[in-house]
Amino acid sequence: MAEIHLRGLRKTYGKVEAIRDLSLDIRDGEFLVLLGPSGCGKTTTLRAIAGLETLDRGRIVIGERDVTTLPPGRRGIAMVFQSYAVFPHMRVYDNIVFGLRMRGVPEADQRRRAQEAAELLQIEHLLDRYPAQLSGGQRQRVAVARAIVMRPDVLLMDEPLSNLDALLRLHMRAELKRLHRELRATTVYVTHDQVEALSLGDRIAVMKDGEIVQCAASMQIYDRPASRFVGGFIGSPPMNFLTGHVAGANGVLRVDVGGASIPLPSGAAVSGEVTIGIRPEHIAVEFAPAPAAVQASVSVLEPIGSHQLLTAKVGTDLIKVAVPPDFAADPDRQVWLRFDPGRVRLMDPRTGEAVPVS
């Protein structure tokens, strides 16, 4: 078993609190993504699990072992860094088996495990080459192969795709997902790229200022963010936010926004002013007034291939709407936006926290 239990982790650098009483349970065989903006503490948390950071307080348990004070080599972990971190003077094969040699693994086992890892990562034809003869993606595969031949209990990855170009990142995301499905190693993956997080993670732990603000399955994070921060960080483009007013009449709850009254599916523990969140793909555009539609004016239309991104002005607010590729509208044209009531999310305007709707 390779469950990971983090309990009350705290790490400071001088007056800067990098991790703030962080607790988290990571399941055996899970692919968990630590996601957040730069400086939120995600890499520090990963390094603490690896034993590369000394904590001010807290406990780290892997499986049934308390590893809080153990050095990295005794924790049963392997780590893949943002940089390719391969030895330039060694062939690919020698890079892959380096850790096995340090542990005195018999040479026959080294060859067998290196071949298995190379085949899994589709680099078996590169074993006799040197890193300078490889592309960036191939070098990163070598780094991953070197990690998995150690058969670690836990695989840690610190933004391993950030130095690759966009097309190669797309390909490597699929490769990492396939690799995890075959190995089922408990994996903790750090990234600031929310598309990467949604694509790879069984669960995502969103971090802010050294704390986890939401940890849930990928699509739950996307569809039901716990706060305005999470909704505004996840998604490309992110969730739209508008100021509205919640009131009930005849047993029906409605939110008034932009001069329109939008029915909500059920009751919410809030009344009066509220922040509403809605994803761009959950808004429909009409060219004539429609029931419960918000009047807006076209600002910008951006073609981006499979669809277009419409920026519309509602009062003083700008919101993004996903529209078909053949959608056409001149700037300043009046349009009416229909929000999917079941997809409207309510946030407390003071705290930014999500308001539960039953």
Helix-strand layout with pairing:
Blueprint: E1 4-13, E2 16-26, E3 31-35, H1 42-50, E4 57-62, E5 65-66, E6 77-80, H2 92-102, H3 107-120, H4 136-148, E7 154-158, H5 166-183, E8 186-191, H6 194-200, E9 203-208, E10 211-217, H7 218-223, H8 228-233, E11 240-249, E12 252-257, E13 260-263, E14 272-278, E15 283-286, E16 293-303, E17 308-314, E18 317-323, E19 334-339, E20 345-347
Helix pairs in contact: 2-3, 2-4, 3-4
Termini separation comes to: 37 Å
Determine the strand fraction and express it as a percent band. Answer: 35-45%
Strand ordering within the main sheet: 6-7-8-3-9-10
What is the CATH class designation of the largest domain?
Alpha Beta
Provide an overview of this structure:
With 358 residues, the protein is α+β, with helices and mostly antiparallel strands. It folds into two domains: 4-232, P-loop containing nucleotide triphosphate hydrolases (Rossmann fold); 240-347, OB fold (Dihydrolipoamide Acetyltransferase, E2P), CATH 2.40.50. Helix content is 23%, strand content 35%. It contains eight helices and 20 strands. It has helices at residues 42-50, 92-102, 107-120, 136-148, 166-183, 194-200, 218-223, 228-233, and strands at residues 4-13, 16-26, 31-35, 57-62, 65-66, 77-80, 154-158, 186-191, 203-208, 211-217, 240-249, 252-257, 260-263, 272-278, 283-286, 293-303, 308-314, 317-323, 334-339, 345-347. Strands 6-7-8-3-9-10 form a six-stranded mixed sheet, sandwiched between helices. A five-stranded antiparallel sheet has the order 13-12-11-14-20. Strands 15-19-16-17-18 form a five-stranded antiparallel sheet, with no helix packed on it. Helix 2 packs across helix 3 and helix 3 (107-120) packs across helix 4 (136-148). The radius of gyration is 24 Å and the shape is elongated. The two termini are 37 Å apart. The model has no long low-confidence stretch (mean pLDDT 89).
